[in-house]
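Why run this: before we spend reagent on co-expression, it is cheaper to look at a predicted model of the complex and decide which construct boundaries make sense. The entries below are exactly what would go into the expression plan.
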Amino acid sequence: MNRHSLMGHLALASPLVLLMCFLVYPVADVLGQGLFSGTGTSFYDVVVSPVTQRTFTFTVIQAALSTALAVLLGLPGAFLIVRLRFRGKSVIRAAMIIPFVLPPIVVVVGFLQMFGAFGILDSLMMAITGSPVSVINLAAGLPGIVLAHAFYNIPLVVLMVSASLERLNPEVEESAELLGASHFQNLRRIVLPHIIPSLLASAVLTYLFCFTSFPIVLALGQGSYMTLEARIWYAFRYFDYGEASSLALIQILVTLSLAYSYVRLGRMRQQGIAPTSNAKQVGLRDLNRVQVVLILAYLALLAFLVAGPIAAVVRSSIYDPLTRSYSLAGFENLLSAGTGGGLVPLVNSAFYATMSTLFAVALGIPLAFAHRGSKNPAASLASIMALLPLGVSAITLAYGLMRAIVVPLGLSSNPWPVIIVAQTIIGLPFSARSIEIALRSIDPALLDQADLLGASRLQKLFFVELPLLAPGILVGAAFAFAMAIGEMSATLFIALPQNVTLAVAIYQNLGVRKFVEAGAGALVLVVTCLVAFLTIDRMTSGSSGGTL
Amino acid sequence: MSVRMELRGLKREFSDGTRIGPVDLLVDRGELVTLLGPSGSGKTTTLRMIAGFIRPQAGSLLFDKDNVLRVPPRERGIGMVFQSIALFPNMTVFQNIAFGLDMARWKHEDVVYRVEEISDVLRIRSLLYRHINEISGGEAQRVALARALAKQPRVLLLDEPLSSLDPQLREHLQMEIRRVQRSLAITTIYVTHNQTEAFAVADRVAVMNEGRVIQTGSPEDLYESPRNEFVARFLGSGNVFSGRIEEVREHTVLVSVKEHRFEVRGQGQVGARVCFTVKPEDVVVANAGASNGYPAIVLSVIPQIGSHRVVLDFDGTQVVSLLTDSELVRQLSGAIGQRASIRFDPESAALVEPCSG
Amino acid sequence: MSAGQYPTRRDPRRVIMGLAVIVTVTVAAYTVWVWPRGPANKLIVYTYDSFMAWGDDPLTIDSRVFGPFMQQYDVEIEIVRLQTDANGVIARLITELERPVADVVIGIDNVLILQEPSQSVLEPYTPSNINLVNDSLIASLDPEHYVTPFDFGLVSLIYSMAKINATTHPEVANLTFSNLGTTEMASSLVTEDPHLSSTGLAFLLTEIAVYEKLLGQDWRQWWSQVHGYVDVLPGWTDVWQVWSTEATKWFLVSYGTDPAYSYYSTNSTPDAAVAPVYNAGSHYAWMQVEGIGLVKNGPNPTLAKAFIDYCLTSSVQSYVALNQWMFPVNNEVTLPTAYSYALQAEDVNILNALLPRSEIAANLTLWLDEWDIIFSS
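The model came back. Tokens follow.
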């Protein structure tokens, strides 16, 4: 092994080593302590407990329902995004990312104002039926949870499936049409088989999100509905480390098998299909009246479900429900530097999210390269490691990092590096995944060509691979940034007051009834991510979703 | 500087059981050899072994006297144009052509000089500022060629470089490649599966099948005397007959094909199974009533440049003939499905071996 | 054409170096910015996020309340409000058990202290001026003195006077659990999840005390009845949020000082009123006592003890009412006028007496599990 290939192996191995130190070791430490030290409930008792079984059943069912709804509502959106020509498409596409960055409490408030009793929807229904009492409350219980999960995940389905649709060569469809296939046959035999892997993959990812959902379920579940993640949180609160670890282990096993199937589907999906820049498109004018009405109805539904809660957030940034007046105090607060001012959280959020995005990308690149040689065991290890964070509950991770890293290293009174570590880990699956897919779409002949032209490994990386990976890197970075800046669970546990992030500050401001301050913070989150994504959409000319 | 390149017994077996080689081939200094063969015959693999992307398990690869098998691709001094062209989409035309020079850390002025020089040779000077997605397919080919040649490689490898272009453009670029290759006198291997293309550009053609070079020679040699049935079928139009030698004469043999007998140039043992081929232009077609011909059914008459191509069925063997007699063609066109007769001189038929029957 | 018109390539190593420099400078700048200030040796107090956060000027409250102590002992005090509640504070102390950073912890209540992990991170300490605190509070909180009472409050039902009042719903004056059990009333109630909120847990204990001790009935009955109607949210913040924005939510579980806060902050008649639970001629409420304790193996035990003593004096206790909206434990402190709107301990029977500490300690997990079973059916 010469010096260069040694360096190469070191570069590929470094993310695995880091993940071992900062993810596997801390989590294993917590789980090992909880499972084997004999404090709290034993694994056996946890598994046989009817509460666990009920929780497990509910977790599985709500995730399935949420996934079904997200796919059902997301699929037409994917078709519209790809096939319909309309103005402002890139803005809509970029707006799709917003739900990812909203702290759960903001989503809940938005949902209540939209779908709750006497919310916008309810007021409308009351006006229509002339009823003096609340007619419909969709922001509670199972419907509330499922709707909120759909709100989070419809965009995911739309982005992923539309990317795959864009890659369908229009000639295939056209030749099918020439061969006499009807619209429906065309859809069933040509389009569906083409998008089914991406559809399944987005479904698996949605399922995974919903499976580990926690704040939404707590807030809308009225205490009756719990996911495994919520019970892990309960158990940690009551210092039952045995139960917490047992549940976390179950959850890791389930989510890892789901994550594994996602990776498999992702592999199937990439069968040398290049994106086509000229996907078949139609303008609104080319459609008949029934189609237009159907499309408008769908858009209205989507606007209600996705844009409604966002609009509520925007309004809350300038409307104070206590004084019933409009004010800009929230934005002034964001710029005030003192204790309780918004500037510190703003700077913290920007710094942590930027740093962790940088690290998530820096680790994601070698992980993707390691994954590329898809035959050796290191490749499988790399992809499992990259997906592991999706299966580890944030609170377990935070506990592990505190126990295994923060305290032994004496960072207790200045723990910000570990916040960046946690946010990096949470964003990593997204950056690694998107870079890896981008890497796979690079024509290997380009690399051979660079080789023949005398480029060294580093030159090849810099002048050929990285520029070609740029769109994938940017999209991965956008998702990692969104995940990092919206992250609350792990940050809450590790952070000291000086480390407060915007998401946490929003939560706190709501707690002390500073509504406009909270709203302004949420709006800043929304706008930051919108602008970031819009820029990236421009830079990658619209193929962003495909790299998820 | 160009080199004399020699492949000696290059061999590679893949895990899926595919075997390539041993491949033996000699390409002289400044010579252009085409590797011709059907897809899967090992042309591209051979090329990639030369480039260094595939490591042969046996054999040697000589550039002049040096065995370069242990030299990494980037130090072999090879310019290559890939089937997918593989221009770097993130760069301009200039940056693409300059890539190899930049990697070698040439001074910028020298790079500019060389890029302009080579782009003049390829007549793409006006494209240098364009982005890759702003040039046409034919222009992309020229850019790829310029990029491969910029560093003055010792050997040029072209892997089906024109396969994605339309016929007119392809023909034009074949001539261009030939012109540039001659003017630079660079040792070149050109891979193609298209016989016309191979013959048009090559000094010599090497026909490959099942991982080996079967026959090497000038286009004329190959066309006139294919060494075996495969070459004959692949190069000719498929006029291959098989039968048994019935009688041996002074310079010819008498071969019985089913109940008919043909006199064929060549020698052999009485009773041996042989194949022989007749080039389409040597097959004489006449109306059914003609004397000393063999009966055949007219299947189709297709007009093409300078002649008509007539396909006939001779006792289950397809026979192709090229006709220029327009009166005869008119008659045959009216007689599709009907009888005609064919014959050829013993001189124009040649025995080929081996023969699958 | 001159060479300058074509772009040259940048050296990748320069790009890497440039990026590395920018990152290093940013990280260094941030590190300096957040580097812990002040003397290395300072007294660190862990508490929950909203500690003393409800006053007129929460930004300067620490220096006003603890300034005199800092001057007297020439030491800096850092009040570290962790982004969590008291359970979270204990959880952090547990993770730091090997290398404690904090000296003192404030906010451990009379239920939390019953759990073994809380005691494991604390060192029992009896302040020299413990006589300032009413014995009953000490008995309620912790007779073993792991923690000393700091403040207390009464957890009760609060209703919005804008939404209902004694005219439309006369039962609010003497509200019983069976009143609350009707579909209409149960649907109008928002409470906190007892797993996640000490207020929610206090309400669960209220209900258990009333049913098991006063009525002699199975406590699970009422919860089964209201399950599906009552809205349970994770924490006090969420509950308050929903209660204040949703017209259908009349009642929330909160503190008896809410009307006083309303009066004080709006300077007008309170828009919220207290409805303590009623049974057979008396009103009842659960008392939450929050304590201050000495962290086991903390860096500055002597100073920490002096600090705990100081917290019982009126220099600290006089700030409790208007900043914490809890009652001070020092009985020499006079309450502000706004507190005339608050539910007073004298107005109600304290339910804590009915549920002995040992009974809670022994049954808490069981009760929560049974509550789960009711709510997940």
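The first strand of chain C starts at residue 42 and ends at 47. Chain C is about 40% helix and 20% strand. Bring this page to Monday's planning discussion.
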